[in-house]
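so my prof wants the structure for this chain in the tokens format not the other one, which i didnt know existed until like an hour ago. anyway here's the sequence
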Amino acid sequence: MKICAVTVTYGDRGHFLKQVIYALYESTVKVDRIVIVDNGSNISFEDILSMDVFNIDIVKSGKNIGSAAGFKLGLQKAAESGCDLVWLLDDDNVPESCALEKILEKRKILGNNELHVFAAQRIDRAKYLSAATTNFTLEIKKNAFLGFTLTNLPRILWRRLSMNFKRESSLVKTNIVVLKKIFYGIYGGLLLHRIWLQKGLYPNENFYLYVDDTEYTTRLVQNGAEIYLVPESIIKDVDISWAQKSSGNLHPMLDMDVDTRRLYYTIRNSCYLSKARFVDNRFIFYTNIVLFIPLMFIRGIIHGNSFISMLKRFNLVLHAVLDGVQSRLGYKEIIPGM
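here's what i got, hopefully its the right format
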């Protein structure tokens, strides 16, 4: 089985990208080809192209067209390469030397099914860790807004108040297989068969910048894919995601250091995706929105944010929600204080 690794880079991130390429060189299973999408970067690829151990293709987008469009270009190039499997990596994802080997082992044990998709363990992502070690299921909740839903509150309260509650492992163990079935994932560490590309399933570039990986992986599931998290296949980020940098573990909505553009696209795209695919009761969905936003506003005031700054921030939040529910996707110029 020939394997093609696909990554997307932008800006001045060559020092991260080189670490990813070196990790692929050190891998116990070598990939046959690497596709690097130059998404408007200012990187010189001379050092990388001089590594004669890989067949490397550079695909230039001309400007930063967003992660969804970038990975779509990379996947299209991978589809043309004749490789059987495609391994997606962010340009700061450094896989451990046996990461790809562990995925292929599990894939083989499960019968090398073309419909199976595998996700490496991202140790920087709390939800991935919870999914691998507890009974937490990584899925989009029905009628939820940014993960919040009123219908879950009684269950959450009961779990926290119950003295008998135990966090039990939900790992699926079949002989030497240790896997967890998940219902959405992220690009970094995702391995899929080219059959999905032959079916025309690519990331949706209208999900500019954020939530595009969630949209893509849930669409794979809805088209018959089964996604398995492989806890032994570990990927480390050499850069910290903006969502992980929030001071004091604040929700990004309340952290004034979080870039407004990132916040807008995350909320808008999440809201659209939930409404389009995961809402079967609009009353509950809109009730969750109406409850969640004021609660977060109050929480921000309690935290110490000024009333004026919270008004400006939640003006942006409301614009994002309205654009999401009204299906206004794609690029949008974000004006500070909008």
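also thought this was worth mentioning. DSSP finds eleven helices and ten strands in the chain.
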